[in-house]
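REVIEWER CHECKLIST
Item 1: Sequence provided? yes
Item 2: Single chain? yes
Item 3: Sequence as submitted:
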Amino acid sequence: MGNNFLTIKDLPTEERPRERLHRYGAQVLSDVELLAVLIRTGTRAESALVLAQRILKGDGGKSGLAYVVDSSVEELSKIKGIGPAKAIQIKAAVELGRRISSYDRREQITITSPLDVKDLLMEEMRFLEKEHFKTILLNIKNHVISVEDISIGSLNSSIVHPREVFKPAIRRSSASVLLVHNHPSGDPTPSKEDIEVTGRLVEAGKILGINVLDHIIIGNNHIISLKEKGLM
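Item 4: Structure as written out by the authors:
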């Protein structure tokens, strides 16, 4: 039987992912093409592009980039055609992307609306599997001083304690804070607990002289501002 397998080298030069990236920039490549560039080579049975497509189909639970982000090296290694070396390359790229997205240029950032918070933290928080609660510390001009990790777990009064929320703000002489947490479900609709915890923190901030400007809930590419919704 003849071998009808098509490799990336069989594609016209202008259609190959690496050449397209070099000519037009990484932003024009699809998720499949970017992943194919990372894994570099396929197998005797399928090209890197086909292998990348198969990876992004996921495992029946999650798929796409969410699957790549959440999978461990061991899980990726079990995919036929990947193995430990390619799995490590993929996870290193994921972690590098996370670090770049949260790179500390924050003192140059001014928060003027919830969309600024989305730009700052969406990529870092949208695929997290547990609820992460953070505070954004602001100076008197609403420039970002720092982003602080407060807790991991379901949002409730025992985990999100005013002492832990405002300790970094007091230490860094913050004029105001923004509360931020994610919903792993992807739906940013606030729960009763979200609203109650926000109210407690707003009152604590008034006593300390630190204004709680808003509480932003992050879903999958969507946010909700409790202030805009009139819930604080």
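Item 5: Key structural point noted by reviewer: The CA atoms of residues 6 and 24 lie 24 Å apart.
Item 6: Recommendation: ____
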